[in-house]
Design goal:
Elements (H helix, E strand, L loop, with lengths): L2 H24 L10 E10 L17 H11 L3 E6 L5 E8 L4 E9 L7 E2 L4 E6 L4 E8 L5 E8 L4 E14 L50 H8 L24 H63 L4
Antiparallel strand pairs: 1-2, 1-9, 2-3, 3-7, 4-5, 4-8, 6-7, 8-9
Helix pairs in contact: 1-4
Length: 320
């Protein structure tokens, strides 16, 4: 087979592929949204960088012990971690001694604390004059666990740099933060779990064993919230939540199946037309031309024989 005969089918296949891709691009997307979650995570403050051990704050190096104690006193030991159906993650942090602070901005790390990058400015979501606290909410990269905090401290008239590590997250809003995400949204079969109502900062708060200064409110813990939720979740071999008998992946509806079938028919039809136009029809034309040429070559000798016979008859006839 010649190179041309190879090239034509390849060209037809390429045109069919382009047509199928164009049709696929015109189809609606069937991608599912992320499932929203709400968790409470423990927050561990550290004056030096917990990965490198270096102190990045420009303060007095002889005051490290006092600085670490201050960071622990300023930082609330729990944070709210919310992920919406777009996959955007939000972390809400609470800071004590709010009347001594002029604001805070954050940097987040996506590589385990080796490097940090700015995140959008935080939003002040709640304040408590009674408990002297302020809650700040930041949009951060999903899955990050390390933050570098720049906290404005009024008495020393500068920002203090220290680090926060998030871990040991449990489901729910155990610390009573202002909550904006409803867990379970975007699921194929949303669980029958009621979202926690937004709570004020004056409600009970989890602590690491010591009461916050200026409050006698009864405190709650993430562990207590987990026990209150109750129930046992079931998972299949693929790790999907099948609590309540949800074990099957959602199938395509009849409209989607018909659309896919129509696309397949169109692609096959386009491929057939291209093959016919680019290969079959030219081949038939060449065959017809060859047959016509063969017939013309066969007719020439017969005509010559007829002329020769006619001449012989003329010579044999009597002359007048």
């Amino acid at each position: 087979m010649t190179r041309t005969r190879f090239a034509l089918p390849a060209f037809a296949a390429a045109v069919a592929l382009v047509a199928s891709l164009a049709l696929a691009a015109a189809l609606p997307s069937f991608a599912f949204a992320a499932v929203s979650t709400v968790e409470t995570a423990e927050v561990t403050p550290s004056y030096p960088n917990p990965v490198t051990g270096e102190i990045e704050d420009p303060g007095d190096p002889n005051m490290v012990a006092m600085a670490e104690s201050m960071m622990e006193g300023v930082t609330f030991p729990y944070a709210l971690v919310e992920t919406d159906t777009d996959g955007t993650c939000y972390v809400t942090l609470r800071f004590n001694l709010a009347d001594q602070e002029s604001g805070v901005w954050m940097e987040a790390s996506t590589d385990g604390g080796a490097t940090y990058a700015d995140v959008p400015a935080g939003e002040l979501t709640a304040e408590s004059a009674e408990e002297n606290t302020a809650d700040w909410r930041f949009a951060v990269p999903a899955g990050m666990t390390h933050l570098r905090s720049h906290l404005g401290v009024i008495p020393i008239d500068r920002e203090v740099i220290y680090f926060l590590t998030l871990g040991n997250a449990v489901e729910g809003n155990a610390a009573g933060f202002v909550q904006t995400v409803t867990p379970g949204e975007g699921a194929e079969e949303p669980e029958a779990a009621e979202a926690a109502e937004p709570a004020t900062t004056a409600e009970a708060e989890p602590t690491d064993g010591s009461a916050a200064e200026g409050t006698d409110a009864e405190e709650a813990t993430p562990e207590a919230d987990t026990e209150a939720a109750g129930g046992i979740k079931e998972y299949n071999a693929e790790g999907r939540d099948v609590t309540g008998g949800v074990s099957e992946e959602p199938g395509l509806d009849s409209g989607t199946i018909a659309l896919v079938a129509a696309v397949a028919v169109v692609v096959v039809a386009v491929a057939g037309i291209v093959v016919f136009v680019a290969y079959v029809r030219p081949k038939r034309a060449r065959q017809a031309a060859a047959a016509a040429a063969a017939q013309g070559q066969g007719a020439a000798p017969n005509s010559a024989d007829a002329d020769e016979t006619k001449a012989d008859d003329t010579e044999a006839s009597p002359r007048g």
